[in-house]
Amino acid sequence: MEYWDDLIAQWLLKSYGSYPLSEQASFAGDLKIPNDSIDNRMPEPYWGDPENCSVVIMNYNSGPCLDSRHTYRTCANTPECMIHEVNKHKYSGFAKSFPLYRPLSPTELWFEDSIGRGWWQNQKTKWIADLIKGIESDKLPFAMEICAWHSDNWPGINKTNLKKHKALIEDRVLNVLLEAVKNSDFKVGLCFGKRIGTQLLDQYVPTRFSVIKSGINYKVYCFDEDYFIVNYWDDKNSRNRYPKSATDILKSTKPSPISKP
């Protein structure tokens, strides 16, 4: 994850003319993410370890950034906040152990007030813990975003901009997603939050994927014969994150996908 370590180090220095920050800033700009988010709020491209995880989760829109104390650039040198730890240990050094999800040590309790941590703890309780229990894994999930900057919505996300940034998405998002799925215990990637995901993933059919199943609000892709991506969305309630109906889709994707042989 050196790419993201370099990018966030550049962002902290406001080195906007540098690659890879200029590449990602252009992508975020075309999505019409507010300049305040790009300039002042720390990007969060992933959480966890893509080489050692239970399940892989990709979110199409990370939502508004509310963690000012933990992500605002001016707090980079303030102890006991997330961005200070990132500035000190690099993004990978902080994100790999997924502190938004795992139990905190006594010396990390300052992070308990993170809104992002509250969100992930809620998802853990709702469905992720049961899913991981089903595959008998003691590993943490790996979670990632299409675009690392927070935004309430993406006014500029459309087929034109997806096609314009296709190479970037494939190199920095899709390839990481597929490799993480292969490394995971579940062998299935769970993508949710926006209908636009089908347009994004369909760009790589049939070169990278085949579609094996679809419904009103989901589509199941297969790659390399034994690995799967389930794209799920709920247009009526975009905050309905992977309800039980989506879990049922997973169970019917292949014979007993959440059971070890």
Structural class: alpha/beta
Q: For the largest beta sheet, what order do the strands appear in spatially?
A: 1-3-2-4-7-6-5
Q: In angstroms, what separates the terminal alpha carbons?
A: 32 Å
* Overall average pLDDT: 85
Write down the secondary-structure element order.
Answer: HHHEEHHHEHHEHEEEH
What is the helix fraction of residues, given as a range?
25-40%
Catalogue the unreliable spans.
255-261
> What radius of gyration results from the CA coordinates?
18 Å
Number of E-state strands: 7
Oligomer: single chain
Q: Topology of this protein?
A:
Elements: H1 2-12, H2 21-30, H3 35-40, E1 46-47, E2 56-59, H4 68-71, H5 82-95, H6 115-134, E3 142-145, H7 159-164, H8 166-183, E4 188-192, H9 196-202, E5 210-215, E6 218-223, E7 227-232, H10 244-251
Helix pairs in contact: 1-5
Question: Could you explain how this protein is built, in words?
Answer:
This protein is α/β, with parallel strands linked by helices and about 260 residues long. It is about 40% helix and about 15% strand. The protein has a 7-stranded mixed beta sheet, with helices on both faces. A hairpin with a 2-residue loop joins strand 5 and strand 6 (about 220-225). It is globular.
